[in-house]
Specification:
This protein has one domain: NE0471 N-terminal domain-like. It has about 140 residues and is of the alpha+beta class. A hairpin with an 8-residue loop joins strand 5 and strand 6. A three-stranded antiparallel beta sheet has the order 1-2-3. A three-stranded antiparallel beta sheet has the order 4-5-6.
Length: about 140
């Protein structure tokens, strides 16, 4: 298996822990990380989360209880998880997973600061529109 560059560490083991909502990943360089599903979800590499430019990034809210309901390999370079909120378009390369694990504290602090600045939180999803209930809204 190859990483993004020939010197990139590659996973030697990936485990999902549903009860604790952690992805446990070990790499060929000996590093090992437990990455919360929530962190994986809010830092999804998909265009719907990151946008096509940093200015287009969409702050993810209300993801504290998100689960990974399925995960499939993508070639020899990434995984594609399906989250319980329906998000399934992020391809997590080995380099992205390594970065999320290695810089987890920094990513959490950045995320919590962005939530606070937006007046949002980890428990209420304000990024998904509410389901349509029908009617035109007039009384």
């Amino acid at each position: 298996m190859a990483g993004i560059t020939k010197n990139s560490p590659t996973p030697t083991e990936i485990k999902l822990h549903q009860k604790s909502r952690l992805l446990e990943i070990s790499f060929s360089d000996g590093a090992s990380f437990s990455i919360p599903y929530e962190l994986l979800r809010v830092y999804s590499p998909s265009a719907s989360v990151r946008g096509h430019t940093p200015a287009q990034a969409v702050l993810q809210t209300g993801k504290r209880q998100v689960d990974i309901v399925a995960m499939e390999p993508v070639g020899n370079y990434a995984i594609k998880p399906t989250f319980s909120d329906g998000h399934d378009s992020g391809l997590y390369s080995w380099d992205i997973l390594y970065d999320l694990g290695a810089r987890q504290d920094q990513h959490w602090q950045d995320y919590l600061a962005r939530l606070e600045a937006a007046g949002a939180n980890r428990d209420v999803d304000t990024t998904t529109p509410p389901p349509k209930t029908g009617g035109c809204g007039h009384h």
